Amino acid sequence: MRLQHCAVYFHSLAGSRLLSLLMTSRHKAADSVSTSVAPAKRKKIQRNHVHINYEKPANVQEAEHCCNDASESERWRPANWEKIIDNIREMRKNKDAPVDNMGCDECPDKGVEPEVYRYHVLISLMLSSQTKDAVTYSTMQKLKEHGLTVDSILQTDDGTLGELIREVGFWKTKVKYIKMTTQILKDKYCSDVPKSVEELCSLPGVGPKMAHLCMRSAWGVITGIGVDTHVHRISNRLQWVGKAGAPTKTPEKTRVALEDWLPRPLWDEVNHLLVGFGQTICRPVNPLCGTCLNNELCPEGKKVLSRDKKTEKKGKGKK
């Protein structure tokens, strides 16, 4: 019996020692593996930089404001331009030019519905292209007697409309443009006139000059300077179209040049002012430079006066 117990004891003791040896060998193997393999590098995490807008100190804001004012004050403007405009106002004070009594502002009926009034403004501007104010005015009277609304024009055949407007320049083309534009107003704008330069310019026969003048007269909004042949001619004669002094080739380029330096509060006045001045004094042919108050300030006026003096001297020499 004691021998049997001793056999069991030695058997269990051998088993525990064998287990201990196995565990020890496994730990050593793990250690050898861990020392032979290099540790994995830690992955760097990129962090997005967050931009924080700090409120600028008052002195910095004031400095920036001064810089803006400085850039405005340093903007190129023609010499003596304010004096020239004052002189033109003085020469225009009697309001005796055709534009004062028969211009597009005088053509619409004042007592009609607002949308009809705006339609009158647009049609008068479309008729005025390449046409004298007196002819535009008389043609508008005929149209108003016939019935000048979107519906009445759409109901008028092309032949009848042509007879009504045949005195204006390019009347056949204008018949087509007026009918097409009127149909668009009916279909797209509820028989009213668009309220943006872009939409107005999309209408057949309407360009930037008409669009800016229409915005002013129809909607009371100043969006730009209306440049016609008079404004284009006078601006180039005065060399108001850029620092380099090179003449502009088109009225649209003249508009861009004027708007670059002319103070915005004057945009409303300058078209009417220069158109009347061009009709009475600064005419396209034989301008009245001798009576113009700007003849010593205007480059073109100086040339004309110098030429006249030379002609006068030659005439006296022959006598």
UniProtKB/TrEMBL annotation:
GO terms for molecular function: 4 iron, 4 sulfur cluster binding; class I DNA-(apurinic or apyrimidinic site) endonuclease activity; DNA binding; metal ion binding; oxidized pyrimidine nucleobase lesion DNA N-glycosylase activity. It catalyses: 2'-deoxyribonucleotide-(2'-deoxyribose 5'-phosphate)-2'-deoxyribonucleotide-DNA = a 3'-end 2'-deoxyribonucleotide-(2,3-dehydro-2,3-deoxyribose 5'-phosphate)-DNA + a 5'-end 5'-phospho-2'-deoxyribonucleoside-DNA + H(+). InterPro entries: DNA_glycosylase, Endonuclease-III-like_CS2, Endonuclease3_FeS-loop_motif, Endouclease-III_FeS-bd_BS, HhH-GPD_domain, HhH_base_excis_C, HhH_motif, NTH1. GO terms for biological process: base-excision repair, AP site formation; nucleotide-excision repair. Pfam families: HHH, HhH-GPD. It is found in: Nucleus; Mitochondrion. Its EC number is 3.2.2.-, 4.2.99.18. Its cofactor is [4Fe-4S] cluster. Residues 127-280 form the HhH-GPD domain. Keywords: 4Fe-4S, DNA damage, DNA repair, Glycosidase, Hydrolase, Iron, Iron-sulfur, Lyase, Metal-binding, Mitochondrion, Nucleus, Transit peptide. One of its GO terms (cellular component) is nucleus. Belongs to the Nth/MutY family. PANTHER family: ENDONUCLEASE III-LIKE PROTEIN 1. Bifunctional DNA N-glycosylase with associated apurinic/apyrimidinic (AP) lyase function that catalyzes the first step in base excision repair (BER), the primary repair pathway for the repair of oxidative DNA damage. The DNA N-glycosylase activity releases the damaged DNA base from DNA by cleaving the N-glycosidic bond, leaving an AP site. The AP lyase activity cleaves the phosphodiester bond 3' to the AP site by a beta-elimination. Primarily recognizes and repairs oxidative base damage of pyrimidines. This is Endonuclease III homolog. It comes from Ladona fulva (Scarce chaser dragonfly). The gene is NTH1.
